[in-house]
Each structure stands twice: as structure tokens, then as C-alpha cells.
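Bug #77: duplicate submission created two jobs. Keeping one. Sequence:
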Amino acid sequence: MTDFSVIIPTHNRNNFLIRAVKSALSQKTKPLEILVIDDCNNRETESIIKNFSQKKKNILLKYIKNNQKNNALISRNIGAKHAKGKFLAFLDDDDFWHHNYLYDAFRIIKKKKVEIIVYNTLSFFHNKKIKNNKKIPKVFNIDDYLHYNPGVLCSNIIIHKNTFLKFGGYDLKVFGSADKDLFIQFALMRKKYFISNKKYVYLQNHPDQWSKKHKLILFQKILFFKKYLKYYLDLRNFYKFLKVVITFIIIIIKKNEN
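Kept job's structure:
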């Protein structure tokens, strides 16, 4: 057992949640605890976690209600404040991990003394088809993050708890870009990070996921632009941003026409 606190925000996705919890429980290196933060206050969800807890007494499984707002970022921040582990391993309720995920992370932390690790990912489809996602750049360059997200997501981030709390957790003002925003802030402060080439994180592809909500994505890109305005003052970056915005506007118009 190591000093990992697994934090799973959830909102009425019990079928996916069961798989996510199982993937955390089946880790070769067992986590210290698994915290499930529910912003839907679903009785069935609470019952599922209690059943897991009764069967797996060697790992603390805790169900926590998020009474503040239906928001995964708030749930993650709540989980971090409750966590007892030295490192936070975030996992969305619809994603899951390879069984070597925490084992590999522990070895990297021990060897490289890093404060944050980001893993590459795979996309998982309902027909069990698996697709390779783009590789995350090994070396941080903010230009890679200004227009798109190269692959820094909730389920593939492991971060030192004290560092996370010093940052104030996830920034709720950039809700759609909060994962990459966290890593950008971290890298700009020259904290030690590691990007793993190993694809130990499976991202579930389904109709209700964030990446398919184009109107919300467009809105969050504007919020992100506002936060990082000084980096967009370079005309090259500004024109790229406009191109991205125009692309999303066209997609939204076409969807409204259909």
C-alpha cells in the first residue's frame, strides 16, 4: 500500500462508476484510499460504495456528498481536502486505469522525485474498440496548450497533494480547461513534472462526454483566452485562437440546422 488517494467525482453514472472503482481496487500497487464524491446525492451510488467497502476492507472506500453544486471540479477539490494520501490520483467516473498505473507512478515518483505525472491515454468505445490518442509533448511549451488540449485530463493526472492545495485546487473560472490549466500553472512555476509515454489510462467515449458539447467548449475557450491573454498578444497565437473559435461556431451552426 502506498500514499495515493484516488479521487473519483461522480454524477449519476453508476455503471461506469463501478468499473472505475474496480480499476482502482485492482491496482498492482494498492491506493491508501478511494474517495467517491457525488454531486448528485444518488442513494444507489452511496449503496454501491458501501458494498465495495464491506468487501474490500484492506482499502478505505469513502462516499462523500458534494452539496455545493453539480460540478466535477468542486467535487475534485472537496476530495483533495479530505484526502490523507501524499499524492492525489484523479479518475473520472466514466474512465478507468490499467492495473499497473499506480505501480508505475510510484516508481517514477521514487526515482525522479517529481510532483506531478501525466500519462498518455487511449480512447475506449462501447464495442471494446481501442483507439490511440495523440502523444502529449514531453517538454512543456505553453503554445501547445493555448489552442487545444494536447491530452492533459483529469484521469491521467497524479499530483502532490500539498502542491495541489497551494494552487488552490482546480480553477472553477476555467471549468472546461481546468485540467490543462492546472498543468500550465504548475509548469510555469517550474515545478518538477514527468510526462509518461505509457498509455495506462482509458478514456470512455460516449455521447454525454464534455468533448461533444461544442457550445460549452466555445464558452470555456473564451474564458481560457481571458485568463491567458498576455500569451495571445503574439499575433500568431491570436490568429490561431480566432481560427479555433470560428471552427466551433461553424460546428454549432451546422448542428442547429440539422
